[in-house]
Amino acid sequence: MNRPPAPDWPAHLRVVLLSGVSGSGKSIALNALEDAGYYCVDNLPPQLVDELLKAATEAGHTRVAIAMDVRSVESLGLLPELAQRLRSRCDLHFIYLDCGTDTLVQRFSETRRAHPLTARGVKSLAPDQPLPVSAPALIEAIELERELLAPVARLGLHIDTSGLRPAQLRAWVRQAVGVGAAQLTLLFESFAFKRGVALDADFVFDVRMLPNPHYDPLLRGMTGRDEPVAAFLRTQASVMRMLGDISTFLDTWLPAMAEDQRSYVVVAIGCTGGQHRSVFLTEELGRYFGRRYSVLVRHRELDAGATIGTIQLPGGAT
Q1: Burial of 295 (0-12, 13-18, 19+ CB in 10 A)
Q2: How many CA atoms lie within 13 A of 45 on its CB side?
Q3: Rounded to two decimals, what is the model's pTM?
Q4: Which of 36, 91, 229, 304 lies most in the core, judged by the most C-beta atoms within 10 Å?
């Protein structure tokens, strides 16, 4: 069967495809995009995307955000091909939201809403009747949903929302779609091991063995973005060696990842408190790779205190 001709969309069309597990914050993310001027549609089957984009562009919209999730389980297999096709015709961003099972159970309990798979029933779990809304059934539905969405989770930027406040998630989503189209976007993230490892990372580097400014009373209240802390860390041979080792590793393997059609690579740098060492190294890596790639820089623990990370584009612009 011949494929119908590709739609004639405007060259400046920007499309955000949003997916993820139920309860991970997709409604918050979609609302953030709507506030940013996107024409937003929730729960649209992939086979209707072309028609929606045609109608939206004819109505004058140049930025469109579409949420798709397990409610369209029968057609999720179309998403990888759809994403590949859209990337060749417009400025596409694909964002996948994930969340830890314990946090999801707590969220469903607090909102008293049923998981979509328990509400409709799934043959592989309940052949004859919908699942009861109980904790064991909920956990089983969450794990099944992860399995169903596994091919989708690899399509773009992966954000773990387990420890994020709504305002923080809104800011990160707006930041993610703020970069222009590029073959590969790098996202550098600092985090604190004491608050859990960054689960959305492709690479995690542990820098807790490096000299810690926390033990200097004059530096303790500062962050890795403050010049006195940065000056101290630059004098430490082990810190600069770590910065060089991470840079060399990424310099070596990023070209291969770009050739593999990766759109985002997330690199997480962790120290004990997510305040000094990891923040400094994240900022330095962002500046270095921002000369050649589109780069996002975010600080999980600092952002939680209402300080938002920066966007850096090739050439050093922010």
Answers
A1: buried
A2: 6
A3: 0.64
A4: 229
